[in-house]
Amino acid sequence: xxxxxxxxxxxxxxxxxxxxxxxxxxxxxxxxxxxxxxxxxxxxxxxxxxxxxxxxxxxxxxxxxxxxxxxxxxxxxxxxxxxxxxxxxxxxxxxxxxxxxxxxxxxxxxxxxxxxxxxxxxxxxxxxxxxxxxxxxxxxxxxx
Length: 144
Known about the structure:
CATH superfamily: Cytochrome c/b562
CATH class: Mainly Alpha
Number of helices: 6
Keywords: Electron transport, Heme, Iron, Metal-binding, Signal, Transport
Low-confidence stretches: none
Oligomer: single chain
Pfam family, one: Cytochrom_C_2
Distance between the termini: 42 Å
Binding site for heme c: 132, 135-136
Signal peptide: 1-20
C-alpha cells in the first residue's frame, strides 16, 4: 500500500509539472533534490541508519535530475514564473560550464550508487554534495 501511495504521488507530481513552465519545473526539481539531500546527509552523518535500497533510490534522483537540469534553463526563462527565479545570469553566459557541472553531479552520484555501507556512502556523498555547493555558488543568486 505504501508503494502505491508513493507511486501515485510521483505520478501526480509528474503530471502537475508537465504543465508548468521551465522555471516552475526546475524549482520543483531543486526542491526534490534538497529534500533528498537532507535525508542523505542524515545517513552520511550516521543520524539515520544506512539503508542501501533507500540510499540508492535517493541517489538515482540525482542521476536522473542532473541529466534534466540543462534543458530546464532555456533562454526565455531568465525571469518570470510564479516565484522569482534565483538562477544567476551566469547560467546563460556559461552554458558549457553549467552543463559540465550538471554532468559532474550525475557522474559523482552514479559513483556513489556503489556505496555498500555507511562509511563508503559518507565519503561518496561528500563528493556529491560538493557539486551542489559549487554549482549554487556559481550559478545561483543568493536569497536575502
